[in-house]
Specification:
By secondary structure, the protein is of the alpha+beta class. Helix content is 47%, strand content 9%. It has 16 helices and 13 strands. A hairpin with a 2-residue loop joins strand 7 and strand 8 (358-360). Protoporphyrin IX containing FE (HEM) binds at residues 98-99, 109, 116, 272, 275-276, 279-280, 283, 341-342, 344-345, 405-407, 411, 413-415, 418-419.
Length: 467
């Protein structure tokens, strides 16, 4: 296949008619980006177009929002790019993550995929219904609800059993005999682990976020080791896998020298919860926030829901049923477009690349930014408008490399289907039980993930027609 870009051989000079991307890196760029990434991206998009140089995170970092440049950034792994994350983040990922060991990436990713798609994803659905219905019973219209903490609880209680293999419907009893005794302690450690990824100095001291995160990581790995041992010691034969851990253990049993070593399994359980929990919380809170502002959209969603489901009970909703609700999917995609929870990881160029007459120099970094790509009028009609219809088939906006909330290319998100399924089921339950309204305009934590601040509240109204 002809690629639209050319990788220069080591030492090869760029053709004389090539240019550098516009704008010079500035020392103030990192702070400006971290404080308000939306504004940073929009202002520079307006002044310089969708590709521009910055000094974000040191050196020269080129931000790309144009589809051809995004495709170039997403597909260079092991050929002309490497993951360019800070040493603290890489140490927290550890050698069993998909961001380390590019030589093993393809094999590991293929082996992990069945844990988040297809048959196993379908078997997760009844658990999602149960946990969501249970939580929503505790949501009350009597007083304003702090949105993010409420959604975060649902996200954890859905995802932790599926990814860590712990049946939390038994409460803390599920942790009996394990080195972490309560769900509260597990969540606290998890947050410390998460914060460690963004520590500034790689110093293993409890005085630093990295040091505390690394310590939490060790405790969590020991915990997972005990979970796995307990599972293997269970004399009952494992039925067909119903969670991610069960899938990996079954594969290990079938092929003891295959991809799934004990180390890989315990690390992957932790990393997948890391990759999903805060992202899903961010998406779910943002969707609720957006829907709270557009009652007409909510009514259309209810009409679609009634047409597809009739009076069938919720626990009969499967991934196939969800496929028949394109408008629901469109509202989630539009939320991801205007409020993408995260950017993509930095890639460092190990070779120079020429694309569309622009020279991307070896040693520079690339960040494919949804905040630029999703704001481009060339690909999204009236990009400042919240308009889910753009994602319906007749408009068909949001093509690959133009709509990138889940990244793309080599490191495309492995959990996109899982996240969308969970978000849709949560939406169906919410639409059935409540109307809601945001109390004022939300403010956001911008970095490392975009998320509504914890103190933002919504007011629920119970629906009289609830099933
Ligand atoms: C709203 C929810 C989510 C969002 C917005 C999101 C976003 C992303 C993005 C942007 C990337 C690409 C990173 C890059 O190329 O630099 C990514 C990768 C990844 N995501 Fe997600 N994610 C979500 C949910 C999940 C879930 C539920 C899981 C698994 C349970 C997951 C697992 C992963 C993994 C394993 C990768 C790395 C894939 C690789 O390196 O090949 N994500 N995600």
């Amino acid at each position: 296949m002809d690629l639209p870009y050319r990788v220069l051989a080591p030492g090869e000079a760029p053709p004389s008619d090539t240019v550098a991307p516009p704008r010079r890196p500035r020392w103030s760029d990192t702070l400006a980006y971290i404080v308000d990434p939306d504004q940073f991206c929009r202002q520079n998009l307006a002044r310089h177009g969708p590709i521009f140089q910055t000094g974000v995170f040191g050196g020269t970092t080129v931000f790309v929002g144009d589809p051809a440049a995004i495709q170039m950034a997403f597909n260079g792994d092991g050929i002309y790019t490497e993951i360019g994350l800070p040493p603290t983040t890489m140490a927290m990922f550890g050698e069993y993550s998909l961001f380390q060991r590019p030589d093993l990436h393809r094999q590991r990713k293929a082996a992990l995929r069945p844990g988040f798609t297809g048959t196993l994803l379908s078997t997760y659905v009844p658990h999602m219904h149960r946990v969501i219905a249970h939580h929503l019973q505790t949501w009350s219209a009597a007083a304003p609800l702090a949105l993010v903490p409420a959604v975060e609880k649902i996200s954890f209680d859905v995802l932790a059993p599926l990814l860590l293999g712990i049946p939390f419907d038994q409460g803390d009893l599920a942790l009996q005999g394990l080195p972490i005794a309560s769900k509260a302690e597990l969540k606290r450690l998890y947050k410390t682990f998460f914060d460690g990824f963004y520590g500034l100095v790689k110093w293993r001291s409890l005085l630093t976020a990295f040091g505390r995160g690394y310590k939490a990581r060790e405790t969590l790995i020991n915990f997972m080791r005990a979970v796995i041992q307990r599972r293997k010691a269970n004399p009952e034969p494992e039925p067909e896998p119903t969670d991610f851990l069960g899938m990996m253990l079954a594969e290990q049993q079938a092929e003891p020298d295959g991809v799934f070593s004990n180390n890989l399994i315990e690390n992957q359980c932790l990393l997948q919860l890391w990759a999903s929990h805060y992202e899903v919380t961010g998406l779910a809170a943002s969707w609720l926030y957006q829907m709270g502002q557009y009652p007409a959209i909510v009514e259309r969603l209810r009409i679609e829901q009634a047409q597809v489901m009739g009076n069938n009970p919720f626990d009969e909703v499967t991934p196939a049923t969800l496929k028949q609700m394109p408008y629901l999917e469109a509202t989630i995609k539009e939320t991801l477009r205007v409020l993408p929870p995260s950017s993509t990881a930095t890639r460092r160029l190990t070779q120079s690349v020429i694309l569309d007459g622009v020279h991307y120099q070896k040693g520079w970094s690339l960040i494919a930014e949804p905040r630029i790509a999703h704001a481009m009028a060339a690909h999204f009609t009236n990009p400042d408008q919240f308009d889910p219809d753009r994602f319906l088939p007749d408009r068909d906006e949001g093509r690959p490399n133009e709509f990138i909330p889940f990244g793309g290319g080599v490191h495309a998100c492995l959990g996109a289907q899982l996240a969308m399924t969970l978000m849709k089921i949560l939406a169906l339950h919410l639409l059935n039980r409540f109307d809601w309204q945001g109390l004022g305009t939300a403010t956001f934590v911008q970095f490392p993930l975009k998320q509504i601040k914890n103190d933002y509240q919504i007011q629920l109204m119970s629906r009289s027609t609830e099933r």
